[in-house]
Each structure stands twice: as structure tokens, then as C-alpha cells.
User: Fold this.
Amino acid sequence: MNLHRVIVRAVAGAMLVAAVAAAPARAEFGTTNFQLLQGYDFEKDVNQTSDKKLTTLTINHFSTFAWGDNFFFADYGRGKGFNFGNGDGVYSEWHPRLLLNKVLDTGSAGFIKNWGLAGEVNQGSGFFAYLAGGSVDLAIPGFQVAGLSVFYRYDKFAYHTWQVSPWWDVPFKTGPISWDFSGFVDVTTNRDGDLDIMAQPELLIDLGAFADAPGKFHAGVEWYVHSFNDGTKNQVVSAPQIMVQWTPFSQFVP
Assistant:
């Protein structure tokens, strides 16, 4: 059996463990939101368009259960010449985690709130990536959420490499305005060992708070940043996106 099949089966096994663990465990919290983004200056990388503009509709879902959590999103992007001339395309990711401190009932460990196994499946038109590794949630003052995942990564282009992915969510207020600063960074390498860094920080205003519906409607900006080597030289894509977000579903289960 070649290494590729071993890795794919290992990743599939990690995903199956998370799915089976979630099945008998009642969901504790779940939230779903929809985002509409209008972006500019998209060029050079996989998201390039002929006029540098890209419109994206995104659905996000996050839920927790007794022993872990799941995060899923799907992007539908549309722009001139996008996705190799087809004009549109769909890209999705699934991130399950099995938190071993909850399985073993060991509680948190100071700075580390949770720790365990993590998997990831990335799928798009003509692209795939399968990742498996470990993940921690961190207790950082002022942060609602902070975490770090370290993965082994197998994908269409780099084949066998690694990925480090920190993420965060920081709510704060300036006078009567409620803000939310969130995002992630993915750091990996291509097949030649060159760094590939992608970040998508978001800064949003809670507009729903002004209409007695806090957390339901947000607006602001997401910044798409991608630093990579195209085979001849290093490239950087820096694309601002105007963003609106609607969160119709958010529920705690007692």
C-alpha cells in the first residue's frame, strides 16, 4: 500500500472517529450565518478575476457536542473569468475536532482550555486537501475564542507537507458600538518548500444591537491576504472585501 493511501485512510479514520463520537452526543450549541462579500483586487492566485472583482456568498455553521465541535463553510464565488474562465465556483471546508480532555474528563490545564484531535477536508473545483493533526483552545484575556491547530497536510499541489492554523475572535466596544474582530491564518508550504500564507481577518460592527437584535446583523470588512510563490517569484494578493452577515440561527441547548 503506498503512502498516499495510508494517509488518506488515516485522515478518513480521524474524520470517522469525530463523526461517530458526535452521533450519540447531544449538540450543546449551534450557530449558522450567511455572508455576502464584494471583493476587489483579486489577482494572481486561484481567486483571480479579469476585472479583479469577486462576489462571494458564504454559509457558515459551527456546533459543539459533549466531546468536541464541528465547523463547516461553503463559498459560492462569482466573477469575470473566475475559476479558470467558468465565471463561478464552489469551495467548501469541514473541520471536526475530538477534544480528548473532554473525552477523558480531565478538565482544562491553565492556559490550555481544550486539547485533542483535529481533521480537515478542503474541496473545490479541481482542488482537494486532507489534513489531520492536533488542536488546542487557548485562554487569552480579551479573546472570546483563540486556538491553534497543527496538521499533516496532503493536497493536490503540495502532496505531503504541514500546516499551522491559528484563529481568534475578539469582541470589543467603543462607546455604544459593538465590534467583532475575528479571523484565521493558514501557514503551509508548497512542493518546493516555499511558504504559503493565507489570512482572512474580519472587522465587523454589530448593527443588530441598534435594533434590539444583538448578534443577528453585522457589517464591515474582510481582508483576503495570500502570500505565495508562483513557481518563479513570490506574490502577494491583498484584497479588501465589503461584508454583510446575517445570523438567523444561534441556539444553546440546556
In short: Residues 3-252 form a domain with the Outer membrane phospholipase (ompla); Chain C fold (CATH 2.40.230.20).
